[in-house]
Every structure is written in C-alpha cells, then in structure tokens.
Amino acid sequence: MCGIVGYIGQRNCVPILIEGLKRLEYRGYDSAGIGILNGSDSVIVKNKGKVSLLQEKVEQLNLSSTIGIGHTRWATHGIPNETNAHPHTNTDDSLFLIHNGIIENYQTLKKGLMNLGYRFRSETDSEVLPHLIDSFLRKGNDLVKSVQLALQEVEGTYGIAIIYTKEPDKIVAARKGSPLIVGLGQNENFVASDVSAVLAHTKQVVYLEDGEIAVITKNDFCAKTIYDDEIRKEVHEITMSLEEIDKGGYPHFMLKEIMEQPESLRNSMRGRILLEEGNAKLGGLADVADRLANSKRILISACGTSWHAGLVGEYMFEQFTRIPTEVEYASEFRYRNPIVGSDDTVFFISQSGETADTLAALREAKLRGALALGICNAVGSSIARESEAGVYTHAGPEIGVASTKAFTSQLVVLALITLLIGRKKNLSIEEGKKIASELFQIPDKVEKILKLNSEIESIASQFKDAKNFLYLGRGYNFPVALEGALKLKEISYIHAEGYPAAEMKHGPIALIDEDMPVVFIAPQDSTYEKIKSNIQEVKARGGKIIAVASENDNEIDHLVDYSIKIPDAIEMLRPILTVIPLQLLAYHIAVKKGLNVDQPRNLAKSVTVE
Ligand code: AGP
C-alpha cells in the first residue's frame, strides 16, 4: 500500500515528485525516497518517516533533473528504515526501481540471484526486482525486454517504475494487482499509483491493466504486455478538481469529509431517484437489472467499513426484495471455496476499488459464474473495471484513512439498488415513493446533525482518556455499532467493540463498570423498547452511557449520561443518520488525544496487499 510517482520531461522533477508523494501519503507514510538521473549517474535519496522529512533532506542537496521516480512506503517486508525505503538499485546503481505490492516468490528468486553472486542490501521483497532485471540486462537484453523477462518469473503483486542510466530517455512501468496510471502532459509525462499525484499537472490519464507494461518518454508512451504484445490504450479525462483533494480550510481531511456529507449524499443520489414511479434509475445496472432481480441469492463481499455497509445492505435487500442475502468478509470468501454460481449475484463494495482481498474475491465469484457487481467510489479502479456492471457512489475523493462519506454514500447506493430490485419484485409504488421521498430528505437531516458538532466535541472531551468502549445497536443499527467502534479504534487507538445490544447479556455485560463507556444507538424505532431495557441493564452496573437518540425523545435523558438527538427517518435509512455522531465522536476523541487523525498508525487508505 505504497504510493509511487514518476516524471520525465523538461522541468526539474524533484519538486514535482515531492508534491506527488505528499498527495499519495495516505497510501503509506513510514518512509520515502526519490531517485533521479544526474547525467549518466543515478542519485538516490531516502529517509525514514514522512515525505516532509525527505523534502528537507532533498532541499539541502539542491538536486535537479528532468527524469525521476519517488516512493512513499507502507512496510510489508523489512522494518521502516532508510535502507528498506525505495528506490532499490542493482549492484552498480545503474538501475533503480520503486515498487508497490508484494513479491510472493521473492525468497526463491533471491536464492537464485545470490547463487549468481548478487548481494542484497535491504530486507525487502522488492529488492529482488532490480537484481533480477539486471541479470537479464547482463545477457544483452535492453531494458524493456529485461523487465518483461524478469516479470515473467515474478509471482505476486506489483506496481513498479524503473529508470536505467544507460537508457536515460525513458521510464518503464508495469502493473499486476496494484493500481498504476500514466499521466499525459505537454512535453512531459507522469506515472503514479493514482490520479491525485498528477492532477496538478494533467487531467489526461491512462489506466494500466494487470500484465501490462508502459514505456514512457518525454513526448510519448506505449503499452505492451509482459509477453511483448502491443496494446492500444484509451486516454481518460479526469473530472476531479485539485480543490477536491485539498483540506478546504479544515484541520483534517476526516473532518472535511464528515462535513461534506450533505453534498456527497446529494451527489450519490443525483439523477437516480424516480420520485413519481417510486423507483431508482441506475444506468450502471441497466443491462443486468433483470438477472439481478431474479437472483436466487445475493452475496455482498467487502472489507472493513465497506463490509459494515454490506451488513446494512443485507437488512435492506431482505426486507424489501425478499431475496436471501449474505455478507462475506472478502478475505474469507476468496479462500473458503464458496458455494456460489450463476443464479447468484455478488456485490463487491469498495471505496478505493483496489482492496486486494475484495478484488480477489471478485475474480473468484466471476470464475464460478456468479453475476459480479461493483459498488465503488474510485472511478476507473480495478474492482470497477473488472466487475460486470456496477454503481459508483460519487462521494468524491476520500483522503482521510478513516472512511466516512464513502460509507454513507455506500448506504445510499444500497438503498437505491433495493428500490430498483424491490420495484421489479413485490415493492408497491406507494412503498417505493415513501423510500424515494425519505431518501431525498436525508442530506438536509445530515446537515442538521452536523450542527451538533461542538456538542459532540464536548462529550468527547469527557471520554478521551477511556481505555475501552462498547457500541450497541439493534436491527439496522447493529452494523452502525460496528462502524462506530471501528472509527474509534482506527484513529484514537482505544479498544472498542460493536455488538448487537441483545447479545450483551451473553458475555460482554461482564465488561461493564464505571470505566466502560457504552454508546447506544437508540432511536425511537421498532427496537426502541428492547434497547431501553438494555440501557437499564448497563445503567444498573454503573456503565457511562452515551445515546444517539431521536430528537423528540425526552424520556431517554433520564436513562443515559449523554444523549445526541438526531432527526428520524424510516428504519432502512436511519443508519445514514445514526453513524454521523459516531464519526464526530471518534474524530474529536482522537484530536483531543493529539493523534494524527488523517494518517493513523499502522493503517493505509487502500489495502492493496492481502
Ligand atoms: C475504514 O475506515 C478503513 N479505512 C478500512 O477498514 C476500509 O474500509 C477497508 O480497508 C476497505 O477499503 P475499501 O472500501 O477501499 O475496499
């Protein structure tokens, strides 16, 4: 889950690489490095820690070159330090390479190369690549041929970029499993893990597919397979603006993205709600809508927050389409020989569209003939491109590692799919109109909840020193309890668990004492009476209670220590509202602990390795 960027052109590449790496830092930020050509020599500068530290080092060296590559790392093999940072080189430093992914057979390759006399400087899997390519260069092959031959021996995932001092007019890049784009400019070209690193310079990009290699020069680029077949590539115009990926005056991307939700939710439903027909219009599913509606079973596969969205989707699909629905962790689904076939539809939910486990699960489902559909936020991402059809969530770029607006937009899209299928089955036009009109009102209700920001901040200050938290909800709000707990864990490093409230007395209630804050998602819905007794069970054992409750509920104030009153909505849409206070609670607790909210430790925005 590293970030890679490269430049070849007429300008000094050093500031361009550093800026690009800063935009990619959400992918990994434990060490960084750049490699440039200085005449016929390579100059490599690496550093442990964030890109800003590398920048200081580079500026002291006053470097300049018109060709270079840069890397920001999320360590998988070898601890974060200067030696293990990228670029890695061959023995005489004439070739240098950056890599995002994991070389699974690196030990075998390393042993073979050491038998040939190669010596390794780092503990990384990536370092086998420059030596392996070198072994083919020594046999008289040119750079492109050597890279192709080397990659034919590699097992695993990679997004790589390579520069060779003896062929200083090109950058060679290749992709398998890890995302890679080529940015096309005027007398300059770029390569990067995603568009955010090149957006300041061009909106013309080409997406590389698995098994493709790109040869990028100052004025041109061509694509081939690693078996040397020529490929014609389509150039895409990026519609995203640079502003969209800046903090917009907020202290953190996470808070900006929480506060953007009224707009991102409107974008997710724009042009997709047919109010008069009580239905939804999803162009991306038009060709498969009948097969989808006639599915014997629906499976939803995802990871992390997207998996939580899937759980809410399960409740929606089963309640309104009556199609049996199951939710699967993608990492388990891909390896457990799943029973899935042509009568089944499998939705793959992913904000980044690059999560390795979800991508592999998608390929597994397709292999078995299931209808594989994607729900993604990142346009042009691997999962979006490899699914047979799908829906973009249009939440806009999500930079903060902790997913917020992408989650609520995923819920809107799941509600729209529920409408689409339901109306093809047994959902009446009246019921459809009810859901459609309620969906329309959601963004305004979220705006109202966001006005509670400072109230939630003051509650957060009461709990910033807590060691544990328990989140409890029922029905549609059980997945919200899981999501609230995940947000807190991710950015505040406080241990937290989400549970169905009724499950508490089967064990977790043993954890309750005056030091255990308990968050109840307790709106006045069909589960309200039940959850009130759960609240009393916790109260009776001295637990400190925060409740997300309905705005007209005055009774609950007598039962809990803190209540956050939010507007009501029909049960299937309520998770979009009840999660917002939990996003803000986690955010403020982490800020009060002085933590780096946007780049929490040990995490990265898109998990492209398994
Ligand atoms: C959520 O805040 C986390 N960043 C993480 O759990 C994330 O949801 C998970 O890695 C899945 O990512 P995806 O939606 O991009 O596939």
Q: Output the strand order for the largest sheet.
A: 3-2-4-1-10-9-11-15
Strand element count: 27
Mean pLDDT: 95
Instruction: Give the N-terminus to C-terminus distance in angstroms.
Output: 10 Å
| Helix and strand composition category | alpha/beta
Uncertain parts? none
Bound molecules: 2-deoxy-2-amino glucitol-6-phosphate
In terms of quaternary structure, the protein is single chain
β-strand amount: 15-25%
**Portion of residues within helices:** 25-40%
Rg for CA atoms: 25 Å
Could you say which overall geometry the principal axes of the C-alpha atoms support? globular
Quickly count the helices. 18
> What does the main sheet amount to?
8 strands, antiparallel
Short recap of the structure:
With 610 residues, the chain is of the alpha/beta class.
Which secondary structure elements does this structure contain, and how are they paired or packed?
Layout: E1 3-8, H1 13-24, E2 31-38, E3 41-48, H2 51-61, E4 67-73, E5 88-89, E6 95-100, H3 106-115, H4 128-137, H5 143-151, E7 158-164, E8 171-176, E9 181-184, E10 189-192, E11 204-207, E12 212-216, E13 221-225, E14 230-231, E15 236-237, H6 253-259, H7 261-269, E16 273-274, E17 279-280, H8 289-293, E18 297-302, H9 304-321, E19 325-329, H10 330-333, E20 344-350, H11 356-367, E21 371-376, H12 382-386, E22 389-392, H13 405-424, H14 429-450, H15 453-463, E23 468-473, H16 478-492, E24 495-500, E25 517-522, H17 528-539, E26 544-550, E27 562-566, H18 574-592
Parallel strand pairs: 18-19, 18-20, 20-21, 21-22, 23-24, 23-25, 25-26, 26-27
Antiparallel strand pairs: 1-4, 1-10, 2-3, 2-4, 5-6, 6-7, 7-8, 8-12, 9-10, 9-11, 11-15, 12-13, 13-14, 16-17
The protein binds 2-deoxy-2-amino glucitol-6-phosphate.
